[in-house]
Amino acid sequence: MQKLIAALLVSITFIIAGCSSGEDISLASLKEDHPEAFGKPVEDSLTKEEQESLGLPTELPFNLEDVEASAVEHEVEVNYVSTDADQLTVTTVYNPENNLQESDTRMTLDSGAIAGVTEREASVFFEWYDDEQNVIYQMAYSPMDEENRLEDALDIANSI
Length: 160
Description:
The protein is an alpha+beta fold. The chain has one domain. 31% of the residues lie in helices and 31% in strands. The N and C termini lie far apart (43 Å).
């Protein structure tokens, strides 16, 4: 009986650990761990204030293999790739003209922001305006396993 309980506890621990990458994916860590692919484009293109409002999730539902950033004018795109080929792209649009895309559904995020949500064939797209930061966040999540795709995408959006 004790072996069964121990095996159950170990299984639960692995399930919980599998729900989040557990990695430090903060701005400082990403700049340090990926200096060329992430740090340089971010530091070269953004002020310190803009870096603070960069749309970075604090949790990922996958193990991170690679991350890179690119910047064009008032947009920064951060691409995350998992060890299992899941992909996440988060775009931060600075000083937007509030041009939000049409969406299928609306969801309220934990922050109170209303996000437009569009479920596509292989991905889920979230977009919302943050009036405190004066930015639009756009997030496209394409997991290999589609079972909990919408729930995982909502969790990611809530962690930004």
